[in-house]
Amino acid sequence: MNQGQGKTSYARNSGIQNAEQKRLKPMIEAAIADLSGSTSTSALLPTKMVVADLGCSSGPNAVALVSIAIDAIHIHCLQFLQPPPEVCVLLNDLPDNDFNTVVKSLVTLHQSNNEPIVATGIVPGSFYERLFTSGSLHLVCSSNSLHWLSKAPEDLTRNQIPAYDIDEHTRLERHPMVIEAYAQQFRKDFRSFLKFRAKELIPGGRMVVSLVGDFLDSGVIAPKFSHMWEFIAQILSVMVSEGVIDKAKLDSFYVPLYEPSDKELREIIQDEGSFSISEMRVHGPQSGVDSALMVPRRFVNTTRAVFEPIIVLHFGEVMDEFVRTLERRWSVEGTMQDDFTRSPRPRVAVSSRRHDLQVGQVQAKSSKWCKLKEA
């Protein structure tokens, strides 16, 4: 994401993402309520709680989800006349994230909510790896992040197969193989995410996540661009035809981004086995979004704020021309709306609960320990 507070920064062009965070409020509130019964039969929350946001990014959105969780904790304690628990808030993103603004946001959050916040911190690193100590987290939140892969699909990069070929016939012929390569990488990454979070959450701990998804098997007309990275590549292909960038550069460009369907997410969660799904929602990309944000100029800025770093890293300083190409496309009346209609980007939100250790598992571990002791 673009760093800082400038006019092309993520901090100033993330209103659409913030709308998705707000939609998670009921799920987070339900998760907090559920945690009051995760360790006892009473309605009391634990006396100490740790809340983490994975993929927090920067700007005002960095503390949005944890703020919702803190408000939910405060309301729950007032309702049941419970002293507020000690709460630790942890924010995570990749090491090159703009943590300067994140730290300022955390300071503001701490000062404005003396209770129940006790400690705050940042945890740099990939959420596809271990980040926290075992059994230390009560609630994990993540929004607008998990559709980003840990890396480009290995099957494509290893065999030097372009994700998007300018030749339409070749592109259509390879399309199923390319999409499957992206799907495989997502399955591998998301299983890792679930496995590590299961180790870090307490038994019965909750997780609320949302990501850009796909309307697969939903009856919606087949999209022109199955995934957002295809749309980005299509704009870049126009720049190739105009001689702005080299075709070989486009052929070696892979956006590590995959939007799964709710069906795919459900299957991966159930197959991995660490979590049970409490609730899953799918809603349209414009649901709950201020109409002022859904205009070409604002959406061009949002696209730039998200994709500029990865485009500039691969192609060099071509972003101004990328923006002009995108603006030309959407300057025709109704073109942007047509793109959204033909290639909808729904949001998939999932609330899940980490399985408690089953009796059989306890017995198996006890038996294994006894055997080791006897040996």
Can you describe this structure?
This protein has 375 residues and is of the alpha/beta class. It has helices at 15-23, 25-35, 64-79, 99-112, 154-158, 168-200, 228-241, 247-251, 262-272, 296-315, 319-330, 335-342, 359-374, and strands spanning 48-54, 86-93, 117-124, 137-143, 201-212, 275-283, 347-354. The chain has 13 helices and seven strands. Strands 3-2-1-4-5-7-6 form a seven-stranded mixed beta sheet, sandwiched between helices. Strand 2 (86-93), helix 4 and strand 3 form a beta-alpha-beta unit. Helix 10 (296-315) runs antiparallel to helix 11 (319-330). It starts with 14 loop residues before the first helix and ends with a helix. Mean pLDDT is 84; it is low at 217-223 and 358-375.
Characteristics:
13 helices, 375 residues
Lateral arrangement of strands in the main beta sheet: 3-2-1-4-5-7-6
Roughly how many Å apart are the termini? 55 Å
**How many strand elements?**
7
Characterize the main sheet: 7 strands, mixed
**What is the number of helices?**
13
Element-by-element helix/strand order: HHEHEHEEHHEHHHEHHHEH
Helix content: 40-55%
Low-pLDDT stretches? 217-223, 358-375
Overall, the morphology is globular
SSE class: alpha/beta
Q: In percent, how much strand structure appears in the residues?
A: 15-25%
- Radius of gyration from CA coordinates: 22 Å
